[in-house]
Amino acid sequence: MTIPLVILSLAAFVFGLMVGSFLNVRIWRLPAEEQVVQGRSHCRSCGKTIPWHDNIPLVSFARLKGRCRFCQAKIPWSYPLVELATGLLFAGTVLRFGQSPLVWAYGILGGALIALSVIDWKEMILPDEITLPGISLGVILSFYLPQLHGESVRWSGLWAGVVGALAGAGTLWVVGEVGKWMFRREAMGLGDVKLMAMVGAFIGLWKVLLVNLILAPVVGAVVGLVLKYRYGRNLIPFGPFLGMGTLAAIFWGDAILSWYGKLLGWQ
To answer: What's the rounded Cα separation, in Å, for the pair 152 and 150?
Structure first.
């Protein structure tokens, strides 16, 4: 029996909310070098263990009016926003790719990008605990799901994943070195390079070049100018823009590449 797509997308949304709740744990504990898997959720202000009924994605935040039940400390808005973003991402992936196994691969990558983007925005770091396993997982999935790269043969998929990882890291490293030479300061950290190696393993050569050379720089430049002139913020992490560019490449990359090819007369 075929399950209607709307039912699958609703189920994916609920599942994404739960994944987003887990991502919040990683977002707060990884920079603090706390245990991620072990240990109950607790208030970061008073240390009290959070009961299960206060840990329901979105619902608990609304019911508690954004405050801890015990000490009334404010719960950061990033908590429900991460949960909502993950739920919408999972639902959108199902709507875009249906019941394809690619949904699981892109869900894993999207969840990692959300966690990395928030950590980078808050702490200006991209933890190796996410990027390095992500690179390995991307290459492995490229073998078992060669469809990630438009291939049907597993060894071709594996090769495409490896090339994508190298291209992702290499092009961003070159961009960083050029920026360092032009602006006489560090323009790109190694964390960004490892992030794009992870992304490249999942999405391959052409889409990763699209992210590195067009999508992320354009979005980053626009947002950066707004933050600089409106809020006076000079130092802006690049990870969130790489994440946004990657999601755009996943959902619309083929159409963008086709349009760009026609623009340049390649097609």
So the answer is: 7
